[in-house]
Amino acid sequence: MSLFSGWRAALRIARRDAVRAKGRSALVVAMIALPVLGVTAADLTYRSALPTLAEELTADLGAADALFTDQGMGPVRLEQMPDGIMWQTPEDAPETLPDDERKPVDVPATFPKGSRHLTEQSVPASVTTRHGITDTQITELSVADPLLRGRVELTDGAYPRAEDEIAATDAFIEASGLSIGDRVTVRGPEQIYTLTGAVELPAELEARSLFAVPGAVIAPWQKTADGDKEILPPQASNLQWLVQGPPGAGVTWQDVLTANEKGVVVRARQVVLDPPPDSEVPMAAHMQGWETDNAELTAAALTVAAMAVLEIVLLAGPAFAVGARRSRRQLGLVGSCGGTRGQVRAVVLAGGAVLGGVGAVAGVGAGFGLTVLFRPMIEDFTGNRFGELTVRPWEILAIAVLGLVTGVLAALAPAIVAGRQSILESLTGHRGTRRSSRVLPIVGSVVLAGGIAVAVYGGVSGNTTLVAGGSVLAELGLLGCIPVIVGFLGRLGRRLPLTPRIALRDAARNRGRTAPAVAAVMAAVAGSVAIATYTSSSAAENDYDHQPNLTAGTAALMTFDTTKKADLPRARAAVEQNYPVSGGRTDLGRLWAGSDCSVYYEEENGCGTLAIVKPTGKAHSCPLKGKGAKELALRISADEHKRLMNSPACVDESSTMVTFGTDENKIVIGDAALLTSYVKLDDPAAAKALAEGTPVLLNSAYAKDGEVTLKAVHTYNERDKEMRALHPGKARTTTDRLKVYVAPDRYASTPGIRMVMPQRTADRLGLHSEEDGSIYTLNREPTDAERQGADAAIEQAGNRAYVMTANPERQGDDEAVLLILALFAGVVTLGAAAITTGLSKADAEADLTTLSAVGAPPGVRRSLTGFQCLVVALTGVLLGTAAGIVPAVALRLTDLREALADMRADPMESAYTPIVLPWETIALLAVVVPVLAGLLAAALTSSRLKLARRAG
């Protein structure tokens, strides 16, 4: 028999066996197809979502040939790169003139002859919505022109064509509650427009903006502002020109150079797609080329691919073992008819090839189908439309071949075992006794220890390649130790009830099928736990670095125009009626010395100053700033640096945000309600101190012996005639020692407040004060509609106040990432447990028959299957959790090394690099998933014993 004929027969037998055992075949195909599906969908999504250079140009230019931009330098020669983004003035260029002396540039004169063009100009504006008012950007651009196709697309209604018409993006319409046909008023000039259509920017789906025809907004607004000085003029952007070059010619590099001579920068489509040689680019001589080092990225991709193949092999391998075990009589017949051991192995390997091929084809097909089906959802998530579904045939073919090869590799170990079995054992159903390898656990332990050492060394030294390699080695070493660990499980069941004791001993006795399934679960859980741990740790670091503008869960109504009194009662009513306010409000005021700097700020030394004098000394000066800071940074650890950064002496040095008022002194007028609602200091002693006229100091670094030094410079501006008449003469300086109540150190980081002063104390010190706003506690974050409604009501109250809420700690999808990782690991765990349970059932028929014969109740069969599944799932999850922590910790050590380097260069930079375990994800995997696997296995197992033909 020729080699080809032998394999053809093996493939025929494998195909018939796959059709005969439809359930097992479907399981193997699913295990191979799922990773192929995921990789195919990921490849298609990545290639399609990542815009090509041509798609980037379409997002910038639409169908135009070029974008001409006056850089505001006047008609002077510029140099640019072919991409139209990087530009500069030549080294021999004359000195740049001041803005008011620069001559205008006649940009249309630089266009190629025979061109046509569109103008584009944007302006920020406040407009009305169905809920109230909101801020947005209005772009004057003829979006109906075919030159804009690909950049702006109509989704509903009609493009604006008249000067009283406007279009809005879908995101703006959704947030504003407007509909086509509604009126939109631009606040200030009070220009009214009709909303005629909804558009989308394929490259910016989340953009909230409006579009009008050129000349419809900016010019009328400017004209209105010229006639009414109460109306602010439009702050329009520079004018740009979208140009369509002569037919068949476009805009060439020579056209770009000509425009550069007049001070115009050009982003031309054909120049970007087919750039000229560097010898023709004047700016290229000054640019230094760079190459991106993708070695670490390539190593990471290869590591992920290798682990994915290992995962599939571990998952599908036991399933092929099930098939080989159930087909051992058939394989014995092949041998009894003269088949060699190689041909027996070929039959099993052919099964891997058949099922691997089917799984690969099914996975690729399903990957295409799901990508097309969920394309709108993916586009909304990424925030941009796919230009087209980008397919790279060689990549798809490689993915399919990977699935096929993985199927063959998964069948390799069962094929070797089947080839070693004697014909007599195969025909009679008896199995010989094989000792487990004693060398493998030793080698595995050595590799495990070495892998951990390499990963940790890579983390400490900052080498991510070593981290990846060491993590893989550690996981492979742990794989080698799994048979010993599984064998140890049998000793744990001595004092357990019958079914869990049998399950543990069965797992230990049949390590050949238990170990691969445990390893498969371990590999999946390890990857998920590693990513989840790194994600949780990074999120904790971002939360620590976040500097809030307000206390979380609060909103502040503040006045911003002190020259005209704000109608605070109406503004407060606007907030209370629109925002999700809980409880009452807390009012606060601001104070100053001399003339108010928020009014008389134009002249140097034209207003007074007020400050708390910070004492000197160890408890008052931040050691991370000033002399000796860098030397100290070289000696301390990240934890010591964190402690110092959080100390009262340093917390003000790292956070300089001014939330209330205009001064950096952060002194506010308030009462006990401010302490409890905003500062969260519920202390009767502090409230009593305020009632008695004693200020409450939140930062102890400014106090010495329970007192603070308040220095005021009472400077009165000549234009402040009323106060100047009351305080003639030169500016005077006062220094007062005030007894204060010092709050605990944890309140030193309260956003925007350093000290709360009673009103009567400010009056006693001769300081000026006024009501500045109110603080509210919120039930939740306000919606867009609530914000717009409040803004509109404040506008009607005189528009002399504004509302701000606490800025969110971070913007991200960490919770979604953790959930997806947990679901992935859970699905793999359930699949691996199901596979090994199927193999257990195939092996344990004789044991179950014996149990039934000695009077075991029917439920024993069901509970035994459940505990067998639970053993595999729980063991794999626990080992995977331990294995996954290694790379996460090593990567965080790499981040720590970089953070320490940054901190030692600038001691005020944070070096906090926490390692946070995702306990919710771990609990879900370690408790919920194994229990669910056991319950499903028990529920899907029949309690009745099927009669079987006696072998032999």
Provide a descriptive summary of the structure in words.
This protein has 952 residues and is α+β, with helices and mostly antiparallel strands. Helices cover 50% and strands 14% of the residues. It has 30 helices and 23 strands. Strands 1, 4, 5, 6, 7, 8, 9, 10, 11 and 12 form a 10-stranded mixed sheet that branches. A hairpin with a 4-residue loop joins strand 8 and strand 9 (191-200). The protein is globular, with a radius of gyration of 37 Å. Mean pLDDT is 80; it is low at 1-5 and 289-297.
Please state roughly what percent of the residues sit in beta strands, choosing from under 5%, 5-15%, 15-25%, 25-35%, 35-45% or over 45%. Answer: 5-15%
Arithmetic mean pLDDT: 80
The span between the termini is 30 Å
How many strands?
23
State the helicity in percent bands: 40-55%
Q: Unreliable stretches, pLDDT < 50, 5 or more residues? A: 1-5, 289-297
Return Rg in Å: 37 Å
Largest sheet: 10 strands, mixed
Shape: globular
Number of helices: 30
Structural class: alpha+beta
